[in-house]
Amino acid sequence: MPTERVSTADDGDRWLQLADRFYLVLVRSLTGLAIIALCAWMGAGVIALVLDLRQVLASGWASVAERAIIDTLIMLALLEVIRTLQSYLKLGRVRVTFILDTALVVLIGELMGLWFREYAPEKVLLGLGVILVLVGLRIVTTRFSPETTGDAR
């Protein structure tokens, strides 16, 4: 007579452990692929920056410099996103300071873009206000970071 196997709590724990491992592997794999894609995108941006140098004689230095500055700030924002993803892989959590750094780079890039175009003063003041708030948050998160608490600084 065949005996039925009764599920125990150990079977449930095994499934949870398997699901946790699968999830971690999946998240790490997707994060690694995202880092590779962003690095490829940055590489393409560097190539485009170099190729844009040919346009200096045709369209003038100032317009090419404007585009180069904006493109460079975008690449710096990508670099901050890559740093955020790397810290997630290393620490298993996202560091708020890296997110704030990314936001600061993007907002400063937006303000730099306004420098070369017509802009409304309200938009500049709003951008400056947000940047000041983010700088304040950056200082607070650095001061009260779990990595620095307990140091004799």
Automatic annotation (TrEMBL):
A Pfam short name: PsiE
GO CC terms of this entry: plasma membrane
Major localization class: membrane
Keywords annotated in UniProt: Cell membrane, Membrane, Transmembrane, Transmembrane helix
Cellular compartments annotated: Cell membrane
Taxonomy, superkingdom: Bacteria
Ranges annotated as spanning the membrane: 22-48, 98-117, 123-140
Keyword Cell membrane (UniProt): yes
Membrane topology of the entry: Multi-pass membrane protein
Protein name, UniProt field: Phosphate-starvation-inducible E
